[in-house]
Amino acid sequence: MKLLVTGGAGFIGSNFIRYWLKKYPNDKIVNLDKLTYAGHLSSTKDFSDNPKCTFIKGDICSSELVHEIMKAIDIVVHFAAESHVDRSIVGPATFVKTNILGTQVLLDAAVKNKVKRFHHVSTDEVFGSLPLNSKAKFSEKTIYDPKSPYSASKAASDHLVRAYHNTYGLDITITNTSNNYGPYQDPEKFLPRMITNLIDDKEIPIYGDGKYVRDWIYVEDHCRAIDIVLQKAKVGETYLVGGLTKDVNNLQIAKKLLKIFRYDESYLKFVKDRPGHDRRYAVNWSKIKLELGWKPKYDFDTWLERTVEWYKYNEWWWRPIKKEAEKLYAKTGQK
Ligand SMILES: NC(=O)c1ccc[n+]([C@@H]2O[C@H](COP(=O)([O-])OP(=O)(O)OC[C@H]3O[C@@H](n4cnc5c(N)ncnc54)[C@H](O)[C@@H]3O)[C@@H](O)[C@H]2O)c1
């Protein structure tokens, strides 16, 4: 089997390639990544010499390149995207280009080259926001209501993927997943930013009142969910994928981290809120559990601690990236 993984130098994509090469050592992988600010060859260092994995630096919006690569591909797993909500507020145009147009270019090439499966990796943010203190959860039946340029561009890409299934008969599947955490996540994202600040004995910024609830999934659980969907799902289906957290808010997570580092609450720094900040996401993952037998394995408290350990032992990876990450927050005033 030959896979095209897009965005394989990013956080989840690199973890997915690592997972796949270990589980299916005879498969071949082409990793197509533009190496934007979010793509790091250092994230692929441990498998860059593997003869089964080829890296191509390129843009998913380049139709000619994508068509050429797709000629020899059986399965596409599409991660490549602009993925940071804060950046989408500062500059939405790139999000529209990569997330919508780039997905369409890939879909076109997949149809023309008759790929066996196009798996699209998406987010629970396409469903908008749930009220705090409610028990409601997103499900596959929830109506799309994206609120940020990032989630709107991902919502559009989901619709395109389904449209290519209905219109051209492309065999697709989609997963909409909650917030991932784990190794190799860029230090400009919420959890790694807090962890790396604490390693450096610096305060940790909390947006607004900190009462923003997210569902958190350990990245390997997400990779396993995509694997099971590729092996067992009915073509054309969408699955919501979530973790084992129960309505934990950002402030509570910050306090968990302070406890791990044995620091007191003077390290908390409340900063200007993100405009249009969604209050709460919660994911009902019973469809993937009932139909395909997947459920998350990794509990948040244990794997948060292991993630902290990973950042402590892998400064070589995040230190060169951290400086760049902080420039963004200087621009948004969320410093
Ligand atoms: N991180 C999360 O918590 C989360 C949750 C749900 C869904 N997702 C989705 O999963 C996917 C991966 O997320 P991530 O957190 O790993 O993102 P990331 O920002 O860490 O990585 C994105 C990768 O895509 C590459 N890329 C960007 N534009 C490209 C282009 N035009 N052509 C080729 N490559 C390009 C980047 O260089 C980078 O390596 C995204 O589609 C995202 O929407 C992420």
Automatic annotation (TrEMBL):
CDD domains assigned to the protein according to its UniProt record, in alphabetical order: dTDP_GD_SDR_e
Record key words, sorted: Lyase, NAD
EC number(s) given by UniProt: 4.2.1.46
Principal EC category: lyase
UniProt-listed GO biological process terms: nucleotide-sugar metabolic process
Signal peptide (from-to): none
Molecular functions per Gene Ontology: dTDP-glucose 4,6-dehydratase activity
Domain called NAD(P)-binding: residue spans: 4-306
Coiled coil: none
Catalytic reaction(s) noted: dTDP-alpha-D-glucose = dTDP-4-dehydro-6-deoxy-alpha-D-glucose + H2O
Cofactor: NAD(+)
InterPro entries linked: dTDP_Gluc_deHydtase (IPR005888), NAD(P)-bd_dom (IPR016040), NAD(P)-bd_dom_sf (IPR036291)
Family: Belongs to the NAD(P)-dependent epimerase/dehydratase family. dTDP-glucose dehydratase subfamily.
Protein name per its UniProtKB record: dTDP-glucose 4,6-dehydratase
Organism: Candidatus Woesebacteria bacterium GW2011_GWA1_39_8
